[in-house]
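Weekly structure sync, notes
Attendees: PL (lead), two postdocs, one rotation student
Agenda item 3: pending single-chain targets
PL asked that the sequence for the first pending target be pasted directly into the notes so everyone works from the same version. It is reproduced below exactly as submitted, 80 residues in total.
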Amino acid sequence: MSRRREPVPFAFVAEADRFRSNVTPPPRPRATPSQIAGRTLIGLTIIAGFIGSLMFGMPALDSQSHPTQQIQQPEASDGR
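Predicted structure, written out during the meeting:
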């Protein structure tokens, strides 16, 4: 089955790029003091979590205090 190709005017697409609305969106409502305090507390909690994970994680990642390979020394035989 052959499809019929019809010319489609794409002028509306070109005009859509140039279209500017003369309607301004309404201004955003200002955040209330409780919303600002809540956002601040959430941010501080996240930052404290990062700092706490670094404080607890850095000693565990220190390679000087915990050698990864333990050298096993064979027990000396008493020569009998």
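Discussion points:
- The helical segments are 11-18, 33-61.
- The chain has a mean pLDDT of 77.
Action: rotation student to compare against the earlier draft before next sync.
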